[in-house]
Amino acid sequence: MGLVNPSPHRQRTISSSPYTAIKSTWNRSQEGVTVNPKGEKMYEMERHPRLAFNCNELPTSQDRSPAVIRRMLIIPFEVTIGEGNRDPRLAQTIIEHELTGVFNLIMEGLIRLHQNKKFSNSELIDSALVNYKKSMNSVHAFSEMKGLIPDRLSWYGLDDFYIKEYVDFCSKEQFKPVSSFEFKKLFEAEGFEKARSNKAGNNGRSGWCVRIPFSREES
After folding, report:
1. Is residue 48 part of a domain?
2. Residue 113 shares a structural domain with residue 177
3. Three-state SS across 52-97?
């Protein structure tokens, strides 16, 4: 499959507005994309390429929904080539001496991909995706790193929990905290529930049913 009039684009940070446009295009792409070449008849393109990016820093996004992570495959490159071992003619060297072997490796991987209908499992790739999810979603990082456990017998007031636990965690771990409104949505997405307390002094206040290992409950 070839690309029609490809237009490469480089961008370090994905802000909310362009990213929304990308998501919108992706959603529509499931129904086909209209192609209008200059001087030719319009037609519908139903087979779409996947996007691949090579970057030193992973992009950021305001969209913290699971749909974003589900569509990503991060392949980390952790090898640093020393100054004395760098080959400025590496591409030409591969073409001249190793092209056949590299091509065979590519074809083997392509055949395996078609047979399995997915990329092979890798602990390195899975770990990179987990770490990226934490960097994108400070609420997820808070839940995972603190070892929080849903527990209807343990209760924390909404404001106390947000300020004394979450914001304090972000300050210590150098994460950027989200607003209290956004925190409620993301924390519920992590599987935690809100409930009203029947304990004396709480006056039926709403709070989180969550247990923090080795931490004293807020009353």
Report:
1. no
2. no
3. CCCCCCCCCCCCCCHHHHHCCCCCCCCCCCCHHHCCCCHHHHHHHH
Residue position matching structure tokens 């400070």? 138
Q: How far apart are CA 178 and CA 166, in angstroms?
A: 9
Sign of torsion over alpha carbons 198, 200, 205, 207: negative
- CA 87, CA 153: separation in Å to the nearest integer? 62
Same domain, 169 and 108: no
Q: Is residue 115 part of a domain?
A: yes
Count the domains in the chain: 2
Query: What's the CA gap between 178 and 189, in Å, rounded?
Result: 14
Which range marks the domain in which residue 153 is found?
A: 138-211
pTM of the model: 0.58
Per-residue pLDDT tens listing for the chain (219 residues): 344 554 444 444 444 444 443 444 444 445 567 778 788 888 877 766 677 888 888 877 777 667 777 778 888 888 888 888 888 888 888 888 888 999 999 999 999 999 998 888 889 988 888 888 888 889 999 999 999 999 988 889 999 999 999 999 999 998 889 999 999 999 998 999 998 887 766 677 889 999 988 654 444
Examine the domain organization and report whether 131 and 71 are in the same domain.
yes
Q: Which residue has the tokens 């987990």?
A: 130
Q: Are residues 130 and 176 in the same domain?
A: no
Q: Would residue 162 count as lying in a domain?
A: yes
